[in-house]
C-alpha cells in the first residue's frame, strides 16, 4: 500500500474567492446601473460586464471544489481511495480509463501523474520527488494493466 499527500495552499483559495467576488460585484454594479437607466449608450459594455460577473461567480464557486483542498491518495492492492475535504472516493483499478506519467525535459525538478477515472481527473504533482513518482506510477499502471487483461480474458471465456 502506498500513501501520497497533495498539499494545496489556503492563500490560493482565498485569492480566487476575493477576485471572484470583486469581479462579480464590480460588473454587477454596471449592469444594475444600466437597468436603472444610466449609460444606455454602453449596451455592449454592459453585456461584457454581465459575462465578467458570471465569470467572477464561476471563480468564487470553484474555489470550494474538492480539488482546491488537500487530498490524500491511498493506493491499495485491489483499489485506491482519494480522501478529500468533501469525503472519500473509492475506485477500483478497473474503473481507471487512463494513467499517464508526465516527465518534463529536466526531470529532476518535477513530474506529474494523471489518473483518469470515469468522469474525474486526478493530477498528482511531484516536486523534486522523481523516485516517488516513478514508484507510484509503476504501482498503479501495473494494477490497471493486470485488471484490464483479467477483464479481457473473462470476456473471451464467456
What do these coordinates show?
By secondary structure, the chain is α+β, with helices and mostly antiparallel strands. The chain is built from 3 helices and 7 strands, in the order E-H-H-E-E-E-E-E-E-H. The strands form 2 sheets. Strands 1-2-3-4 form a 4-stranded antiparallel β-sheet, with helices on one face. Helix 1 (10-36) runs antiparallel to helix 2. The longest helix has 28 residues, at 130-157. The mean pLDDT is 89.
Poorly predicted tracts of residues: none
* Class inferred from helices and paired strands: alpha+beta
**What is the topology, as strand order, of the major beta sheet?**
1-2-3-4
- The helix count comes to 3
Question: Which helices and strands occur, and which strands form pairs?
Answer:
Blueprint: E1 2-6, H1 10-36, H2 43-62, E2 71-75, E3 79-84, E4 87-92, E5 96-102, E6 110-117, E7 120-127, H3 130-157
Antiparallel strand pairs: 1-2, 2-3, 3-4, 5-6, 6-7
